[in-house]
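User: Structure please.
Assistant: Input sequence and predicted structure:
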Amino acid sequence: MGITSFADEIAKNKRSSLFLAIVVSLILFFLVYFIIFFLLPELVLVALPISVILIVVYTYSSYRFGDRVVLSATNAKLAQGREYQYLRDVVEGLSIASGIPAPKIYVVESEDLNAFATGRNPQNASIAVTSGLVRSLNRQELEGVIAHEISHVKNRDILFMTLVAVLVGLAAIVSHLILRSMWFGGRRDSRDRGGIMWLLIIVGIILAIFAPIVVRLVQFAISRKREYLADASGVGVTRYPEGLASALEKIGSVNRGKMKVSEALSHLFFVDPKKSSLDSLFATHPPIGERIKRLRAM
């Protein structure tokens, strides 16, 4: 992976992040409009400008503080004390080798072996690992996983992936609110609104049903290529593909996909923390076996 390729990937991630923020903001605007229409139709002209302001503020807040939302949602705690000195040394050494500031380091209490990176840029980044990962991997394996996550930071994948977690997840939540709100406000003035009301109700139902699938499709679209790229660029730092390949083998044999993690956050992780019936169609990560095969072919 050359310097030009990294620069192109970084520029692409910046464009994708901006595009995502605009598109999801528009979706949120229309969802809010439906809710206001059902609950307070007489205040639409007043409420919509306020909604626009709130959505803009929320989108900017997602950019600035989305990493805090993710860390809070996963119950991640700062890796402090002598217990995690080894982990901090690994992160600091690989950050220096990658030419970026050392990210803040967090630990998530879980027996599953996993990790993720979040933030908006290399100067404001965090890496979180599960306690099971720290206990179970040897140094070469841990370095492989951390180098992978540091590559996400260096390539600026983290901004786009964090925005997906916060913004697209919110759009799914708001769409479900439509179903609730229409029963309170949708039945009022039904004689006057007639067909329009029922059309909006149908739209609300469709959004509520398909929003989780759309979230999964967005995650699917952004994740697989980025995981392969982070694997390759991580090996470029450690110079030892077997470390990451061995870590993936161990993770595949230990994990059971039962981490208590929101579906909207699954694409952030090193491997998918949850397994569901949708995985074969909308998997957020490449198959572990394929990742190992590529690593051992390097």
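Residues 3-75+156-296 form one domain.
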